[in-house]
Specification:
Blueprint lengths: L6 E5 L1 H8 L10 E5 L1 E4 L2 E6 L2 H17 L10 E4 L11 E3 L2 E5 L2 E4 L2 E4 L5 H17 L1 H4 L6 H16 L13 H18 L9 H8 L4 H18 L5 H4 L16 H12 L10 H11 L41 E4 L1
Parallel strand pairs: 5-7
Antiparallel strand pairs: 1-2, 3-4, 4-10, 5-10, 6-7, 8-9
Helix pairs in contact: 3-5, 3-6, 6-7, 8-11
Length: 337
């Protein structure tokens, strides 16, 4: 089945490591990788560099399916133009005479992709879903007789996973709008757990102490860093490994799609992590354990009461950070099915 040429990324092991150190690499030292599609069960995403190539790939896919008695759902099939160069607002894609709808946003495998290559729409969707999850357990949460320990378990096993699904791939910075939205929502929910408002003048340090919860940015940071360690230990054949530090052009100065890599580069500098730490899985785990050890300090049930004034303060590592500027994701044409 001919799905076209797809798109080409230029990267490799050295490009990945140097990108995380915020260093460049010569074009001739980059390896070229071809991407044509993303497959997950019956969810298929086709990638092409031009609209005509995308039309051809989708038509070939539809024709091949029909020969085996399969049918592409036109209603569920959408297309996006992540690079608007050469693509007009009036352009259409027709499959067997039926028009494929162009969308600005599309949910693929639980995450929102948009034509701007940003994550704010995905973050807002996760917040809406977390609000729905909160409403389903509101009677337990707002019941003053519910122990704080049980509330915290509900928070971490039911609410938190819904809020942060897919956060490992979010290109976020500690001063970005996305993390500010998440922190605002998280702080409001923790106040609800305690039955207090901003007028009660509780500091967030006090609220974290009394609920036994952790700052949402720390929880997300740990997950992102763990995922980065897994990716860096992947063999080079894995597509996820190939895209770290890769560029859509051979020019090493083309950094448009380095949003996630730049964000992770800033984060490992923030926590004092070295790229060499990724090689040894056990050593990397110990490094993360030292950084986030305050999260692993479990509180006894009696320490979740409102009178728990003797809880020890979490000990965090003091690290320096250097903020790097955000960058847009490299634009490519893509169709989602």
């Amino acid at each position: 089945m001919d799905l076209g040429e797809g798109t080409t990324l230029f990267g490799g092991e050295r490009a990945a490591r140097r990108a995380l150190r915020f260093q460049g690499i010569a074009a001739e030292k980059r390896r070229a990788y071809r991407f044509r599609e993303l497959l997950f069960a019956d969810d298929i995403a086709l990638v092409a560099e031009t609209l005509e190539k995308l039309k051809s790939a989708l038509q070939n896919l539809t024709d091949t399916f029909s020969r085996y008695g399969l049918k592409v759902s036109i209603d569920k099939t959408k297309w996006q133009a992540l690079d608007h160069r050469g693509v007009k607002s009036t352009d259409k894609i027709l499959i067997n005479g039926e028009q494929i709808k162009r969308v600005d946003e599309f949910v693929y495998l639980g995450s929102v992709f948009n034509e701007r290559g940003t994550i704010m729409s995905d973050v807002k969707r996760r917040i809406r879903l977390a609000n729905d999850a909160m409403r389903r357990v509101r009677k337990i949460i707002h019941n003053k007789a519910t122990p704080m320990g049980l509330k915290r378990k509900i928070l971490m096993t039911f609410i938190y996973p819904t809020l942060t699904y897919g956060c490992e791939t979010w290109p976020m910075y500690k001063t970005g709008k996305e993390i500010a939205e998440l922190k605002k929502w998280w702080h409001q929910r923790l106040r609800n757990f305690l039955g207090v408002t901003t007028w009660d003048h509780y500091t967030m340090e006090e609220i974290f102490k009394r609920t036994g919860a952790q700052p949402i940015e720390k929880l997300i940071d740990e997950r992102r860093l763990r995922y980065l360690g897994h990716m860096m230990r992947y063999p080079q054949q894995r597509p996820t490994k190939r895209v770290i530090g890769a560029s859509a052009r051979s020019d090493p100065q083309d950094r448009k799609n380095h949003g996630w890599t730049r964000a992770m580069s800033a984060q490992i500098r923030q926590y004092g992590i070295k790229v060499k730490h990724f090689k040894d899985k056990d050593k990397y785990r110990r490094v993360l354990s030292r950084i986030f050890r305050d999260r692993r300090k479990t509180l006894r049930p009696d320490q979740f009461s409102d009178d728990s004034e003797n809880e020890s303060q979490p000990e965090g590592d003091t690290v320096s950070s250097e903020d790097s500027s955000d960058s847009e994701s490299e634009s490519q044409g893509r169709v989602n099915n």
